[in-house]
Amino acid sequence: MSDEEATSSVFDHVRDVVEGDAELTLEQVADEADVPAQVLREAFAAMNWDARPGYDERDVAYARALRRILDLYPLDVVVRNLRTRYRGMTTIVVSDLGTVRDRVIAPALEGGADTTGLAVRLGETAGELLPLITGQLAEDYRHILVGLLGSDAVSQGAQLQAREVDLAVGFVDLVEFTKLSRKIDPAGLDRLLGRFEELVTEAVDRIADTLLAKFVGDAAMVVGSDPLQVARVLLHLVDDRQQLTETPRHAGLAYGRVLVREGDFYGQVPNLASRLTDHAKPWSILAADELADRLEDHFELSSVPPTHLHGIGEHRPYRVRSSSEVS
Fold first, then answer.
1. What angle do CA 317, 320, 326 make, to 5 degrees?
2. Which pLDDT value is given to residue 160?
């Protein structure tokens, strides 16, 4: 049996333990929870649950909570939020499974552990940990909610008059990541991306009123109501050459009207920030020319030759440097 087959076998057993005796149909869950079956099917489909072979009392409890939420919001809003939640939760679970694979399963198999015995032990552990982890997730949600409610970027995005708000959007990514990914093995690539994500998270945590919107492969999007604050985050990431020394970063910054939708940010401003990032040299930041007046009293700006940005057109950005860089 290959390592891949052995790992799959272990995960199959853990899934069986975690899933338990799922003997109810979706229609039975709907009936017990007093939710129309079609409504429940649509909600479960948003979480990719509608094709499961069976359900249990945990699903009934979930459906009852869903019924109460539907008293507050229309179905289309609930479904949209569930889809967003599914994407976020999938990232968390994939990360956790990768940790189990690398830190528990792989070393045990290399040490000659019996696959069946390992699967049983992991299954028992998973059954014990699941309620603890789900309880922690509830507290994580509460703490994150409290923190984000104090974020200026989030409060602007929640304004009642529109979902389009003025925000600064910055991107930072790893230079020539595609070429780099051909040179190192998947495990090394995973460590590299993990460290990059830590650096970005730490930089955002250092600067008030900035929000880490998302990671997209080797890139991160940072938003905020104040371009100065987002610029400080980006500068921290490109100025620090002591971390990931062999992996240069570059960044782009723009400001203007942004559409806030399902926890993400859309429009010409994010597109411009992304294109500027692509054109920035290693260890540097390019800012949209419209930001010159806002940035010039706080950072060193130098103009760069006009460039054609794909999907944007002709643009004359500025390179942004912190005062410590200037001799």
1. 140
2. 42
